[in-house]
TrEMBL record:
Keyword Nucleotide-binding: yes
Region described as Disordered: spans on this chain: 621-652
The family this protein is said to belong to: Belongs to the helicase family. UvrD subfamily.
One Pfam family hit: UvrD-helicase
Positions of the UvrD-like helicase C-terminal domain: 277-561
Keywords: ATP-binding, DNA-binding, Helicase, Hydrolase, Isomerase, Nucleotide-binding
InterPro entries: DExx_box_DNA_helicase_dom_sf (IPR013986), DNA_helicase_UvrD-like_C (IPR014017), DNA_helicase_UvrD/REP (IPR000212), P-loop_NTPase (IPR027417), UvrD-like_ATP-bd (IPR014016)
PROSITE patterns associated with the record: UVRD_HELICASE_ATP_BIND, UVRD_HELICASE_CTER
Keyword Nucleotide-binding annotated: yes
Record-listed ATP binding positions: 27-34
Reactions performed catalytically: Couples ATP hydrolysis with the unwinding of duplex DNA by translocating in the 3'-5' direction; ATP + H2O = ADP + phosphate + H(+)
Membrane-spanning segments: none
Protein known as: DNA 3'-5' helicase
Length: 666
């Protein structure tokens, strides 16, 4: 049995044990908000609240996974019915159960940004959008903004209305949803179908939300509907860490919560348990420059006089080398564990040099927030097969695979199939099927035979994946059947190694499926839920590749909620943080940039390194850089720019040998 009083301070204890009625906790970084949620779940289970009545939501897959793991360790229980998930996976789960009420198939496809791009291009063509207006990024933004009530139609964006309507109609026809739909559609179900809402209210009687400051208004409304009746909802967050306003998240929702749940209990947490004094003081000082915030006190008992290290280097190569070498030193000297080290960057484009240099220096690392394994072309091809097999109305997937590997179905045939589909208002797959029997078709008999074979694959594997034993094994047979390896060898005729490498990737993909399938905690391994899992994981963080013993190289956004003994923040330069484009768009964004800086530095438990380059190559162009103005917003006596010593003292060398000797004799 856990001694809650001993493991929590009095305010945390109150937050953990107040399980009836609404609770609001707004508190600074490292004050134990996430800890409160995990202990709260454990406390509920101790109070005999059934697992299935509990719902905990958070922002990233990684955070959800860690929370789950923590509860499992705390309680030692098997958590088969507990829901700890991201908003998007929770939405996907509801849709899986109820989407037929909206006229979709339960095997619906989830489109990622690549699929979205394809679909937008298609819709633009169909609506004869002027090619000059085809700005995919902008259109995606408008579509998402309209769907999530973030923006309205205006004179300016009206030209895209037709594309938007087509886009929506196509998704529906394909039995496909985009990421926004994972919240929009469940929200719609809740507001339009009272018995469905009632069913979920009866299931999820106790609700918790971590990182509440980054919940969008739409996500808030969705959860509000769920919580309104039982009113057992606990939200925890920090307005100083709100870093997703560009995606519609808005800490206004804290005020909405106060209004919607006036009887709430409000709890303040003021002790930071994460960081040493220096780091906390610097962070507090920095964030006090924001005007628009709730004032908070935050103190730590962790004394320390290690200053924050500011390192000036010539360019990004030197920066990466410093980081790689210094990581090796602290691993050796301070016995730091690789996974307790975080290397953070403001933007994705700073990753490449760091990644290369870590690799060259044999520093094991894993990357989050970058391009996902599941977005590689060869892996996506196989995923498209699987999606098409489960949901043949998914035109985007069918079109991706109809001639991959090449089977001699040319552009003309595809155009003809597309025309039939449009004329008759049917899916591409149904159009293929109708061509096979059409007497007056311009399609030759040879091609008809090929189309026959293609359909046979889809149907055959639809049966097998739903009915036979191992999913992974069946997928390997599929890869064999379509001759994917030969296709790769043909595509990369000049370089067998690339073909082999790509083939290894898809074999790794099937291995991941196998591992998932055989996982004893996985009670219901079906392919659809695996595909959903990866659609969701490729969004932000790559949970599949997470392993111990590796340095974490990630964007600040992906690091939210995490903590590391040692943190390196690279590119502490004006224009990078604060980010130039963000400031140009709207000068008030400086506050959000400051919050990002605050999130970055409060990830550090013991030691913080900030690196600044004199020059940096940005988009192939070498630029003179100046240090970030945020550096001046921290008390200067907490920062030192003396190079950290790489040499070991005699004492340290002795200690190192003693440690090694001990390890070998164990
Ligand atoms: N009462 C406590 N006793 C010991 N350790 C604690 C206590 N409260 C929190 N901690 C530890 O402090 C660290 C920070 O806690 P946690 O991650 O829950 O903070 P947080 O408020 O969620 O931070 P963030 O705002 O960054 O998400 C964790 O390692 C946690 O285990
Ligand atoms: Mg947290």
């Amino acid at each position: 049995m856990i001694d809650y009083k001993k493991e929590l301070n009095p305010e945390q204890y109150q937050a953990v044990t107040t399980i009836q009625g609404p609770v609001l906790i707004i508190a600074g970084a490292g004050s134990g908000k996430t800890r409160v949620i995990t202990y709260r779940i454990s406390y509920m289970l101790d109070s005999h609240i059934p697992q299935k009545n509990i719902l905990a939501l958070t922002f990233t897959n990684k955070a959800a996974k860690e929370m789950w793991e923590r509860v499992r360790q705390l309680t030692g229980k098997k958590l088969t019915n507990l829901t700890v998930s991201t908003f998007h996976s929770f939405g996907a789960q509801i849709l899986r159960e109820k989407i037929h009420h909206l006229g979709y198939r339960p095997n619906f496809s989830i489109y990622d940004t690549q699929d979205q791009t394809e679909l937008i291009k298609q819709c633009a063509k169909e609506t004869n959008l002027h090619p000059e207006l085809l700005n995919i990024g902008l259109i995606k933004n408008i579509i998402s903004g309209i769907k999530t009530d973030r923006i309205q139609w205006t004179e300016e964006n009206e030209v895209y209305q037709q594309v938007f309507l087509e886009y929506q109609a196509h998704l529906k026809a394909y039995h496909a949803v985009d990421f926004d739909d994972l919240i929009v559609l469940p929200n719609k179900l809740f507001s339009e179908q009272p018995n469905i809402l009632e069913e979920y209210r009866n299931r999820y009687k106790y609700i918790m939300i971590d990182e509440f400051q980054d919940t969008s208004i739409l996500q808030y409304n969705f959860i509000k509907q769920l919580a309104e009746k039982n009113r057992n909802i606990c939200v925890v967050g920090d307005d100083d860490q709100s870093i997703y306003s560009w995606r519609g998240a808005n800490y206004q929702n804290i005020m909405l919560f106060e209004k919607d749940f006036p009887e709430r209990v409000e709890i303040k947490l003021e002790q930071n348990y994460r960081s040493v004094q220096t780091i906390l003081e610097a962070a507090n000082h920095l964030i006090s420059h924001n005007t628009n915030r709730k004032d908070k006190k935050l103190w730590t008992g962790k004394e320390d006089n290690n200053k924050i290290q500011l390192i000036f280097v010539d360019d990004e190569k030197k920066e990466a080398e410093f980081i790689a070498e210094h990581i090796r030193t602290i691993v050796l000297k301070e016995r730091a564990a690789y996974h307790q080290i975080g290397v953070l960057v403001r933007t994705n484009n700073l990753m490449a040099t760091l990644e290369n240099t870590l690799l060259q220096n044999n520093v094991p690392y894993k990357l989050s927030g970058g391009k996902s394994f599941f977005e590689r072309k060869e892996v996506k091809d196989i995923i498209a097969y699987l999606r098409a097999i489960l949901n043949p109305d998914d035109d985007i997937s069918i079109l991706r695979i109809i001639n991959t590997p090449k089977r001699g179905i040319g552009r003309q045939t595809i155009q003809h199939i597309g025309d039939i589909a449009t004329e008759q208002g049917i899916s591409i797959y149904s159009a293929i099927s109708s061509i096979r029997y059409a007497e007056d078709s311009p399609v030759s008999n040879t091609i008809k035979k090929t189309l026959d074979e293609f359909m046979a694959i889809i149907e055959d594997y639809n049966y097998r994946l739903n009915n036979t034993g191992s999913i992974a094994e069946t997928i390997r047979e599929l890869i064999d059947d379509i001759n994917y390896f030969e296709y790769l060898l043909g595509e990369y005729r000049d370089n067998d190694n690339i073909a082999r490498y790509k083939y290894q990737n898809i074999m790794l993909f099937t291995d991941l499926i196998e591992r998932w399938e055989k996982d004893p905690d996985n009670l219901n391994p079906n392919l659809w839920s695996y595909l959903t899992k990866i659609s969701l994981s490729s969004r932000e963080d790559n949970t599949e590749e997470s392993e111990k013993g590796k340095v974490n190289l990630m964007t600040i956004h992906a690091a939210k909620g995490l903590e590391f003994d040692h943190v390196f923040l690279a590119g502490v330069e004006d224009g990078i943080i604060p980010h130039q484009r963000a400031i140009e768009d709207d000068p008030s964004n400086i506050e959000e940039e400051r919050r990002l800086f605050y999130v970055a530095i409060t990830r550090a438990k013991q030691k913080l390194y900030l690196t600044t380059c004199k020059k940096r190559k940005i988009m192939r162009e070498e630029k003179e850089q100046t240090p970030s103005p945020f550096l001046e917003e921290m008390p200067q006596h907490l920062i030192t720019s003396e190079e950290p010593s790489q040499e070991m003292t005699e004492e340290e060398v002795d200690k190192l040998f003693a440690d090694l000797k001990k390890r070998f004799s164990e």
